[in-house]
Design a protein that fits this description.
Layout (H helix, E strand, L loop, with lengths): L1 E5 L5 H11 L3 E6 L12 E2 L7 H17 L5 E4 L14 H8 L3 E6 L4 H5 L10 H7 L3 H10 L2 H6 L5 E4 L15 E4 L21 E4 L4 H4 L1 H12 L6 E4 L5 H7 L5 E3 L10 H8 L3 E4 L3 H6 L8 E3 L4 H13 L4 H15 L2 H12 L21 E2 L3
Parallel strand pairs: 1-2, 1-4, 2-3, 4-5, 5-6, 6-7, 8-9, 8-10, 10-11, 11-12
Antiparallel strand pairs: 12-13
């Protein structure tokens, strides 16, 4: 297959590209903007800088010209947004053009996901969107998106052939695509590029929180929890890490022992958590029955279930510090979990099976009920 991957939030498409190429497929990775988030890899950028009339005209014409120059594709997989074009004039027009060239359109729901935002859900109280829209600058765009619902997006959604969710919090977004075949496929990770620097059972473990967006990650609550923890004990070091490229971030995280990821995640955890698990860190994030209902193997994940309440979060982290003698064992288990369940080549094969009209290997779904969730290491015993 010849495959086009659009966007690269948290390096998801970078990992997927490696997996697809390892399975013998030709892949191009492009991003709608100019430059790239966290200095992630991309083969082409479709953004045009400037707000002048000339820049606005170039923003209409150049992306279409560039897309035509790339040739035809068997599959185009989007995530974050459902258009490669950023101009309000041409947005979503790439979908019809690609379909006219014989491409099958696919959507991978994850991150700040446009489809999920366009279909608001009320049943989950700890989604990150509300806090993001309140505190993060680019969250204001999501507020506008929710208000106008982008009628053209709704009209374009039926063009999609496949819609895939990476976590429970994005499942409802799949209904935005009425004609798409729906599937759940986990995040891909290539651990060969992630050095194993396991958490240590030493005198002052290093706790790290690394927000890309403070509202989305729940940074205010994390910092309040750390203050509460400091008032009770001093046997840890806390670091707030932000504004780094992905390569710099990984170098900085070598000294980390406990990684607090997003606390608004509805029982799910994402790429940052998985990368840190692969590096042997003790991860605090979402992990519980809602997430298990889609991916039962998540029960085995040695992820500490977070709380969005600062007092409870402080108690959870304090419990970890009391159990630091277990860190080396849990670190080994964490890397093995990622290797077993999120291998980038296996995940790529699931996508190819879906796109080829076959049935991807299924994970047995579980009923979401009143299952007991361990207060600390879920699946770590």
């Amino acid at each position: 297959m010849r495959i086009l991957l659009v966007n690269n939030a948290s390096g998801v498409h970078e990992y997927l590209r490696r997996g697809l190429e390892a399975n013998g497929h030709e892949v191009l990775l492009v991003v709608p903007g100019k430059g790239n988030y966290q200095s992630r890899a991309a083969d082409a950028h479709f953004g045009v800088v400037g707000r002048s009339p000339i820049a606005s005209f170039r923003r209409i014409v150049l992306p279409y010209t560039k897309l035509r120059s790339l040739g035809s594709f068997d599959v185009v997989n989007y995530h974050l947004g459902i258009s490669l074009f950023s101009s309000p004039v041409t947005r979503y027009m790439d979908l019809k053009y690609l379909k006219s060239r014989g491409a099958r359109l696919s959507y991978y729901a994850l991150g700040c996901d446009e489809a999920s935002l366009l279909r608001i859900r009320e049943d989950v109280g700890d989604l990150p969107c509300q806090s993001c829209m309140e505190y993060d600058a680019n969250g204001k765009n999501c507020t506008k998106l929710r208000l106008n619902r982008r009628p053209r997006a709704s009209r374009s959604a039926p063009l999609f052939d496949f819609a895939v969710s990476a976590a429970y919090i994005y499942d409802h977004g799949l209904d935005f695509f009425p004609n798409a075949r729906k599937e759940k496929i986990q995040f891909p990770i290539d651990i060969s590029h992630l050095d194993f620097n396991p958490a240590r059972a030493h005198a002052k473990p290093v706790i790290v929180h690394s927000p890309t967006k403070k509202g989305f990650k729940g940074t205010m609550q994390v910092l309040e929890a750390v203050d509460i923890l400091r008032s009770k004990r001093d046997d840890f070091e806390f670091r707030l890490v932000q504004g780094l490229s992905h390569a710099e971030y990984l170098r900085t995280m070598r000294e980390c022992d406990v990684y607090i990821d997003q606390i608004f995640s509805a029982d799910s955890f994402g790429i940052a958590a998985l990368e840190n698990m692969a590096c042997g860190k003790i991860v605090v994030s979402g992990n519980g029955p809602l997430g298990w209902g889609g991916f039962p193997f998540m029960r085995q994940a040695p992820v500490v279930r977070a709380s969005m309440e600062p007092v409870l979060l402080a108690e959870i982290v304090s419990d970890l510090l009391d159990r630091k003698s277990e860190f080396p064992r849990i670190a080994q288990k964490a890397r093995e979990y990622v290797k077993t369940h999120h291998d980038y080549r296996a995940v790529a094969r699931r996508f190819v099976s879906l796109w080829s009209g076959e049935s991807p290997p299924q994970t047995k779904r579980t009923q979401v009920g009143d299952e007991k969730v361990p207060s600390a290491f879920a699946g770590a015993s």
